[in-house]
Amino acid sequence: MPRTVEITDLLLREAQQSLLETSMALEDVAPVFEDLDNAGYWSVECWGGTAFNSCIRFLNEDPWERLRTYRRLLPKSRLQMLLRGQNLVEHRNFDDSIVSRFVEKAAQNGIDVFRILDALNDVRNLRASVEAVKKAGKHAQGSICYGPSPVHTITAFVDIAQRIREMGCDSICVHDVDGLLKPQAAYDLVKGIKQKCGSDTLVSVHTHSTTGVTMVSLMKAIEAGCDIVDSAISSLALGRGHNPTESVVAMLEGTGYESRLDIERLQRIKRHIAKVRPRYGELFHQPIGVETEIFQHQIPAAVILSMEYQLKGQGAPHLLDEVLGEIQNVRRDAGYPALAIPASEILGTQAMFNVLRGKYKVITSEFADLMLGYYGTPLGEKDPDVLAKAAIRANKPAISCRPADLLEPSWEPRRAEAVALGCNGSDEDILTYAMFPKTATKFFQTRAAGAKEISRELSEAKSGPEPAAPGSASNNAGPSRSYIISIRGEEHRVTVTPAQ
Amino acid sequence: MPRTVEITDLLLREAQQSLLETSMALEDVAPVFEDLDNAGYWSVECWGGTAFNSCIRFLNEDPWERLRTYRRLLPKSRLQMLLRGQNLVEHRNFDDSIVSRFVEKAAQNGIDVFRILDALNDVRNLRASVEAVKKAGKHAQGSICYGPSPVHTITAFVDIAQRIREMGCDSICVHDVDGLLKPQAAYDLVKGIKQKCGSDTLVSVHTHSTTGVTMVSLMKAIEAGCDIVDSAISSLALGRGHNPTESVVAMLEGTGYESRLDIERLQRIKRHIAKVRPRYGELFHQPIGVETEIFQHQIPAAVILSMEYQLKGQGAPHLLDEVLGEIQNVRRDAGYPALAIPASEILGTQAMFNVLRGKYKVITSEFADLMLGYYGTPLGEKDPDVLAKAAIRANKPAISCRPADLLEPSWEPRRAEAVALGCNGSDEDILTYAMFPKTATKFFQTRAAGAKEISRELSEAKSGPEPAAPGSASNNAGPSRSYIISIRGEEHRVTVTPAQ
Lengths: 500, 500
Description:
homodimer, 500 residues, alpha/beta, TIM Barrel, Cyclin A, domain 1, 3 domains, eight-stranded parallel β-barrel, 22 helices, 12 strands, 12% strand
């Protein structure tokens, strides 16, 4: 009897976040709900992460209403969300009164599985969420943020997993945001977790296809006992997205493992998404290809792009390689936080200042907070000199407690503000406001107009340059095209370059 | 000590053939020769297959001269070619006098490794080439064309491998043109070959990334003892091409296996190819994605596209699925030839006639030849009724001998014709003529003009529609773009739609 390997589908949330410039409109995904709900997935990830913000910012749509719609139209599915621990769906810490209320409301509105992670792997940042999830009677999946470093050995990761398990999590997720998880590491890590936490501990592996090796990592994780893997339908997969679901199903055939997925339903989903995808922009104008360079510096391409842009603004685009090298030093000085958002951005900016202005001559307030423990405690030792400089810069002491312990309960003041600013009085609205006060305030005013017909709008607006391969000469200006055009009977040869 | 896994590079030949509309101009690949030659590949595939024809047809370039250039500029590398057995670099049989001369000249001009295959897996079609390769003192790599069928079991493939090995081949290649080789099959097949042919038998695996599972298949093949795998540099990989070399290197890290490749050289090659790739068209306007549908019917997308086109011409585009189903019947009737060119095309056309005109009411002459054994003998039993119809249609008997045994030696007549038509009198020119009489004749007349500056030409001509996802509304007409252009000081708004 083959062992069943379960699949978590990412189409409704992270596949869109990884590959498209925005979340897809409900009208474009609604036609696949029946197939999604019956295909045989373990869970359907559909909420949390950047999708929450994207709803109010780009779609003029209530994220809670979107969740209720998913709940209604996917009645058989376990709905899953990504929760950034104490950061919830933002990149800053909230106090426990907000965290517990957010989890309670997410559960009430339809979430069954909470995947909870902290970029620094400081498990104290998971505790309040995990407790709230358990209180709501839902599934708490505690995550390890994967990113190797001299201190982030397999043993260290397995220890973190054990602490997450002991906290009461129902499953453990190995969470790899950049495709850094190589096959052997995947095997060793899952094997180690199963050995240390017990073979009945559900283990899930989340990775990206960025580097071209992670299909193999999924296979190795499965061989080591992994129970659940994440994938996305092939027409919204690959590149900086995820491994294609149909390929995962095919990969298992004839092995000692099998999925429960209905391939005909998958193919219908594939075809529909292929049809609507062109209505959306592509993030980064992604080339067909892989980025194995990330193994060297672990910096996500989005962060590199943003650094390139900033360096250009400083008239120093030639310094990019030096900055990428300096990030490694800054990361070491900071005790090796995982290079996930927000740490990756904080380290990147600090490295840029170090290269442009001299080593720690300028210290950003975010980097000072990171050094001083206000995001949590990373695994490695921090450099004492840099720590001292950060304390002077920020004019506050280093802390060793759980950062959220320093925060006052803010539910009541946030509620009062949100009501004054025109929210509908629901706890959900107040939480939306607590997350994103500015965007939420604007949304409360425009909500009555209804969700944007985003796909039509994008379809009409989309007239940018075609995607070009990386390093292509045409990357900057867009490709020139020559046409022979006829105006009042006279022929002209015209070369046009999109103005961007 | 990790075991070394060797890599064959496909950049110079099949990666181009799989992904681009033409072969790349020498000027565009020349800058990577030094890195290619020193990166640590087992061999560099650079000649044969469709590249030969492409040289004279599109580049006005002597393929033999191209080979000598590769030899000169890649002095340290084993140069490898794809030879289609008795078909050489065409899709029809040649007599042994042509076959032996072709191999002799290819060896003299620089080929070290001859990868030899027959679409029907009729090993008799490999014999003359293998003997000629051994006579020239070069490496003969005999290939199995992989494509599962009720008769094409792992055991059957292993038997074929054994016969190839006994013929005197120096290595065995598992050759999978469409990404059909799933991980477990890859493992079982390589394991079986090693057991049956001896563990010292070099085994190579060639596959495509079409279905998204074959990176895993390479890993499994390696675990089973595979010595050499094929890959292409990442900036000319994936889609219907091959698995990316840099990812293969990363995949092995920390396992019991390692490559000898120099990652810095690979990254330089990657960057250069990424820069020049946009000068060439993309075959099929490939979507980012995978095609797992091919597991159901085994028909290469190029053949499906051509059938779609033909069905449209017949006013019956809705019959495509029926034709794809009928191909399976026709394949069974023909004794399960592998669905590689030319068999895939022959079966596809016959299936189309069966659907449009009634079962075997019309029989193409190629299908009759295939049924009657004039391409060789497939593994399965043929349907006796269809065989009888084919014999009536073709008005000739079925044969069971090696097809080339029926061919008269044609070296002398071909030589006389080629000389009369303006070839330079070299054996190489005569062979070019023997392969492609029409194209060669034209080439002999235009050769003096020199190779086309293809990349500049393509760059200027390239004004087609941007690649769109499959099923996109913009697939047919290409996107319209509006521009404000100024001619002699007067502004005009112009909307242009590429004419295709």
